[in-house]
Design brief:
This protein folds into two domains: 122 residues, Aldolase class I (TIM Barrel, Alpha-Beta Barrel), CATH 3.20.20.70; 68 residues, Up-down Bundle (Four Helix Bundle (Hemerythrin (Met), subunit A)), CATH 1.20.120. It has eleven helices and four strands, in the order αβαβααβαβαααααα. The chain has a four-stranded parallel beta sheet with strand order 1-2-3-4, with helices on one face.
Length: 222
């Protein structure tokens, strides 16, 4: 009946029941990702009520997208950008629920921003930016965890991926199913457009294999 997604914030008791039911049949943590409010149900008190009741159902980790959602009037795409970000609301939730793991999400586009936001919460979730610019995460160990980890170049990442590509091709997975997830690997690097164009043009063709990726890499290096 369409009762899924952000609209369930209006039914915290139902969400709590779902969490409790899932906890009974799995031995892994059940987490909840939500907005900070929906439509006119966007007061801080209503968010606190939602968190409290769902936590009572057995959820101890909440990933909060720091925007409300307009269920009527905005498309899903518009809801990702139009409602204003309220990081302060998520940070206040952590202060009021110190025993819960609170992870902040929404509009986070750099590791430096992540480090800043982590001062008031338990963790940061980067969504679209990490997908469109995956090499953003290359320095995460150094900036987030203070670990002096050797960083692979983008080219080394491509070569490290080749065995997986070959394995998936052998399992009859089409190349473009894999390649579409690395279109942004050379984001903001000279040759990035040629990389994307080659993978997008030749990746979907019948018989496309890892050589398409290597050819695209040559376009960047050239």
């Amino acid at each position: 009946n369409g009762r899924f997604g952000a609209c369930l914030m209006a039914e915290p008791e139902l969400v709590a029941e779902c969490i409790a039911a899932m906890q009974q049949v799995v031995n892994i943590p059940i987490t909840v990702k939500s907005r900070i409010g929906i439509d006119d149900k966007d007061s801080y008190e209503e968010l606190v009520n939602f968190i409290s009741k769902v936590a009572d159902g057995g959820c101890h980790t909440f990933i909060l997208h720091a925007r409300k959602a307009w269920l009527s009037g905005l498309s899903p795409k518009q809801n990702r950008d139009v409602p204003p970000l309220r990081y302060d609301v998520v940070q206040q939730i952590k202060q009021d629920f110190p025993h819960l793991e609170i992870i902040i999400n929404g509009g986070i586009s750099s590791l430096e921003q992540s480090v800043e936001l982590m001062q008031g919460v338990d963790g940061v979730m980067i969504g679209r930016e990490a997908y469109h610019n995956p090499y953003l995460l290359a320095e995460a160990d150094r900036l987030i965890y203070q670990q002096d980890t050797l960083i692979k170049t983008r080219e080394e990442v491509v070569f490290a991926l080749l065995p997986y590509i070959q394995e998936q091709l052998a399992a009859r997975v089409r190349l473009h199913i894999i390649a579409r997830h690395i279109l942004g690997l050379f984001h903001s690097v000279q040759g990035a457009r040629a990389w994307r164009r080659h993978l997008s043009t030749y990746g979907p063709k019948a018989g496309a294999d890892e050589n398409v990726v290597l050819q695209a890499l040559e376009l960047v290096q050239g």
